[in-house]
Amino acid sequence: MFMPQELPGIMIVEQEYRLRIRFRSLLKRAGWQLAGEAKDLAESLAHLREDKPGVILLHWQGEKEDFVLVKKLAETAPVILLGSLTGAMAFQAARAGIYGCLPDSIGDEELLAALAVALARWQEAQALRQETEELRDLLALRKILDQAKGILMKKHHMSEQEAHRRIQRYAMYKRLTVKSVAEAIIKATGGKA
Questions:
Q1: Per-domain residue ranges of the chain
Q2: Which runs of E-coded beta strand occur in the chain?
Q3: Among the CATH numbers 3.40.190.10, 3.40.430.10, 3.40.630.30, 1.10.10.10, which is that of 133-189?
Q4: Is the pTM above the cut of 0.90?
Q5: Residue 190: left if φ>0, alpha if ψ -120 to 50, beta else—which one?
Q6: Which of 26, 178, 189, 184 lies closest to 112 in space, CA to CA?
Q7: How far is CA 16 from its chain centroid?
């Protein structure tokens, strides 16, 4: 479970002032930092860059068209919706990247638990996205390096190890990355040996 000092800021998006006060009080007692408040989606998007919330609590009172704005929020932080979604709107919420949808009548403890779960799932998803991006970059490098080694092997009749060592040595000597040297080899030969 999260310790209070580890909890990120939370943005409250609620039209009714008295409910914003209730949520603010509840969250502060539970150790959450307040990262901002907004009356509606448009206002929350305007404050998003400066407030940088770690979680967004959104009391849903909008129409289907608002999912475009909700999706923009969901790209920056996990969004928990309070309100009732039915049928097609629930599927739209899922496609928008919402991390949870709770009824208006939810109790305080259940709300806090849902926020903690949403944050944990968001952090896991972010770590997976980063790992995927790193693997994609590594695979692209491997592909370029293999093509450059193939060119050197064919053109200079050397083994794969010798071609690899030559690329590494040249990169070190010129203080370049292996990728940039491999790309230069491919470009210089037009991709052919």
A1: 4-106, 133-189
A2: 9-13, 33-38, 55-59, 79-82, 100-102
A3: 1.10.10.10
A4: no
A5: left
A6: 26
A7: 30
Place of tokens 């943005």: 11
- 32, burial (CB in 10 Å: exposed 0-12, middle 13-18, buried 19+): buried
Q: What is the pLDDT of residues 52-80, one digit of tens each?
A: 888 999 887 666 667 788 888 888 889 88
pLDDT tens, 135-148? 999 999 999 999 99
Classify domain 4-106 at the CATH class level.
alpha beta
CA angle 13, 127, 125 (to 5 degrees): 50
Q: Which two tokens stand for residue 138?
A: 């590594």
